[in-house]
Amino acid sequence: MSKMVVPGLYRADVETLWGYHDMHHAIRPTDVGVGLGSHDLGVATFAAELYREGMFPRIVFTGANAPTTMERFPRGEAVHYRDHAIALGVSDEAILVEPAATNTGQNIEFTRELLADRGIGVRSATLISRPYQQRRAYSTAKKLWPDIEVICASRPLPLDEYVVTIGDVNRVINMLVGDTQRVMVYPGRGFAIAQDVPSEVEAAYRRLVEAGFTARLVT
């Protein structure tokens, strides 16, 4: 399998999941931007773009490390995101770093605590994430930070362009499958609010699992 091309055999199902995770929120000004740590430096790139456009006055970058990011971001995801955003013109004073979170729930909880500790009132937040993390980020935030308005945002890249930026189509498909599973099972574990999962999304998910894209499934 080419590392840069979505195989035709799986394309329809991958596109179904890709479309499902896009919340299609209209981006508008909020009190804070929250860049969710991951292997995708594009999160910090887009957070910087939105900041420069005046969409929020400050950014919180949140994230420690996962097994997929230790080599690329040895000082932690949030720290590397901060450095990247500063290189793109974001003021150092406009950035807060939350360096301890190791999952999306902690991203939300620790960011909320950091802002509260700094006395920063928040009524709305823009969550900047990987494209396929939007729906999970939204459902997690609405569970753990229910009193704010949540807008989800990602770099507006088509699927094929996104795969090129990551450089590994297997990783992208496995992440899509893993996030879809989490959207389905995490409400039952108390981690997130329930989301509607259309039958075509569940069918696409199950076919991709049967095809072996199981590396990011939780037990």
Can you put this structure into words, describing what you see?
By secondary structure, the protein is α/β, with parallel strands linked by helices. It folds into 2 domains: 8-21 and 158-210, no CATH class; 32-153, Rossmann fold (3-Layer(aba) Sandwich). It has helices at residues 8-21, 42-52, 77-87, 104-117, 134-144, 159-166, 169-185, 199-210; strands spanning 32-36, 59-62, 95-98, 124-128, 149-153. The chain has a 5-stranded parallel β-sheet with strand order 3-2-1-4-5, with helices on both faces. Helix 2 (42-52) links the parallel strand 1 (32-36) and strand 2 (59-62). Helix 4 (104-117) packs across helix 5 (134-144). The longest helix has 17 residues, at 169-185. It starts with 7 loop residues before the first helix and ends in a 9-residue tail after the last helix. The model has no long low-confidence stretch (mean pLDDT 95). Residues 44-151 form the DUF218 domain. InterPro entries: Cell_Envelope_Assoc, DUF218, Rossmann-like_a/b/a_fold.
Keywords for this entry:
Rossmann fold, single chain, five-stranded parallel sheet, 8 helices, 219 residues, alpha/beta
Distance between the termini: 27 Å
User: Oligomeric form of this entry?
Assistant: single chain
Strand order of the largest sheet: 3-2-1-4-5
- List the secondary-structure elements in sequence, H or E: HEHEHEHEHEHHH
CATH class of the largest domain: Alpha Beta
Please give the domain count.
Answer: 2
Considering the protein shown, what is the CATH homologous superfamily of the largest domain? HUPs
Radius of gyration: 17 Å
Q: How much of the polypeptide forms β-strand, as a percent range? A: 5-15%
Largest sheet: 5 strands, parallel
| Count of discrete alpha- or pi-helical segments spanning 4 or more residues | 8
Low-confidence stretches: none
